[in-house]
Amino acid sequence: MDCIRLSWTNRPAKALEENADFVTDVIRSLYNCKKQNVPTDVTKWIIDAPSSKIHSRRSACVHQGVSEEICSDTLFSNCSSASTHVFKFVRLSMDVVGRLMSKVPGLKVLHVLRDPRAILMSRHRDGFMDYVGSYNEASKLLCDFMLQNIRECKKWQQRFTGLIKTVLYEDIVEHPVDAANWLYEFFGLPFTKDIKRGVDQMTHGTDGTLLKYPSPNEWRQGLNISEAHVIDSNCRGVYDFMGLRTFDTESLMKDMSTRSRVRQYDVGNYLFPIKK
Fold first, then answer.
1. Are residues 124 and 251 in the same domain?
2. Which of 89, 108, 156, 227 could form a disulfide with 98 if both were Cys (CB 3.0 to 4.6 A apart)?
3. pTM for the complete prediction?
4. Of the residues 53, 84, 107, which one is the last residue of a structural domain?
């Protein structure tokens, strides 16, 4: 099982429309392991991505004295023989997802949402805010994109019944074993004792304490109240859908005894029931 991570950034609607069919076809070719249908630069980017398992396998192959071209062909051949293909796409438009599902019958999609405040603080910490400027500009771009994706997701959930589920990043972090169990069930894969043990080891310390990193509430320590209010002003629609709380004062925001969510929301299309 290989996980390939691609990034689809916040582009203007026109550019998204112009490229949606192209992106859809590239992803479908990757899913079907058709190297000849994938642009060379895309193939090179995937294979050379340090975080990709494909990269480490290709490197091991090349170190044995085999040419890069043959190693790449071998990797795509292995892809064809795999029983399960898993892809992770960052900031992918749900418009593209809908087009893809129309062309790949039975494809299952997990739509992961995260608190916009946590996303923006993470981007600021990692230097990505330099490309968009202020929290005001960045939060408007992000939440407009998220809200459009939420609306598109609802539409596709009605058309492709049972094939698209939404889950919150925060719930995966807070309930990793339950989340993994539901994930495997959704994708029709066995959640074995070995897998459960692996999830436990990755998410818990030696004393059994849950390792919440990155913490769902880390943004509450990293942002000041003025920055949070700027983000709030552009993200009301996303907050309403996700049931997120806003904070009037710095002290309330820093008080971790108060949860960031205010209500249970419709879990009909969610992967697993959300904890209050």
1. yes
2. 156
3. 0.81
4. 107
Sequence length of the chain is: 276
Q: Rounded to whole angstroms, what are the CA distances from 110 to 45, 153, 162, 165?
A: 24, 10, 11, 5
Please compute Rg for the chain using Cα positions: 20
Q: What is the pLDDT of residue 275?
A: 45
Residues 161 and 269 in one domain: yes
pLDDT digits (tens, 9 = 90+) for 153-191: 999 999 999 999 988 888 888 888 888 998 899 999 999
Which percentage of the chain shows pLDDT scores above 70?
81
Same-domain check for residues 125 and 95: no
Please choose, from the candidates 211, 159, 166, the residue with its C-alpha nearest in 3D space to the C-alpha of residue 186. 166
Burial track 254-271 (b if 16+ CB lie within 10 A, e otherwise): eeeeeebbeeeeeeeebb
User: Which of 107, 130, 158 is the last residue before a domain boundary?
Assistant: 107
Contact 134, 231 (CB under 8 A): no
Q: What is the number of structural domains in the chain?
A: 2
In this predicted model, what pLDDT tens digit does every residue of 90-131 receive, in sequence order?
888 999 999 999 999 999 999 999 999 999 998 888 777 766
Sequence-ordered list of residues with C-beta below 8 angstroms from that of 52, at least 6 positions apart, any chain: 2, 3, 4, 5, 46
Judgement on whether residues 249 and 158 belong to the same structural domain of the protein: yes
151 and 57, same structural domain?
Answer: no
Domain that holds residue 43: 1-107
Q: CA-CA distance, 222 to 241, in Å (whole number)?
A: 24
- The answer on pLDDT for 212 being more than 70 is no
Q: Which residues contact 68 (CB under 8 A, 6 or more apart)?
A: 58, 62
Contact call for residues 111 and 149 (beta carbons, < 8 A): yes
